[in-house]
Specification:
about 190 residues; mainly beta; OB fold (Dihydrolipoamide Acetyltransferase, E2P); 2 domains; 6-stranded mixed sheet; 5-stranded mixed sheet; elongated
Amino acid sequence: MKSGEKNGKGQGKLGFNPRDILEKMRKDYWEGLAKPPADESIVTFLALAFEIEGQVYAVRVETVREVIKVPPWISKVPRSPRHLLGIMNLRGQIIPVLHMRTDTAGRPIDRGRIVVFKNEGQDIGLYADRIVALPDINCAEIQKPHGIAGPVPEEIIEGQVEIPDEHSGRSKIASILNAAAFLQCPAFEFRES
């Protein structure tokens, strides 16, 4: 067979017909688009999971502005409620930083993180001991809260779900916080030092 000639099957010297391959690819593509997803009933959301005093909490990522290392410039506020760690200047915005730890005496905070929440009119920071994971949470797997220990009032917990801990490789139960209710929680209004 001379160069450029085709054999009896329409194949070139390569031994296959590129047009046939392209046609099959087009057909597979359009058939794939016509098929519905395997299960449209699965609803998930991306969450930020963090730990405070051994308890894992998760919030929807869209409620979080950013996560930063604990800055050295958190200023204590005289006569402030016990849950107010202090205030900080974050790129020109003064942000109150809350904590939910029950015992802060003598415990270092410089190794933790500040989760900065988007809040109407005033962003608010929350101290976390560490970030656990950024899991996709399947809404069908969320269970009613039960056996909740820790400083968070049960009325602001939407539910609990098992999530992977990216540091230890084990699963943990995370309490899912309703961020809007958490940031408006009256429990943070009356605590005093």
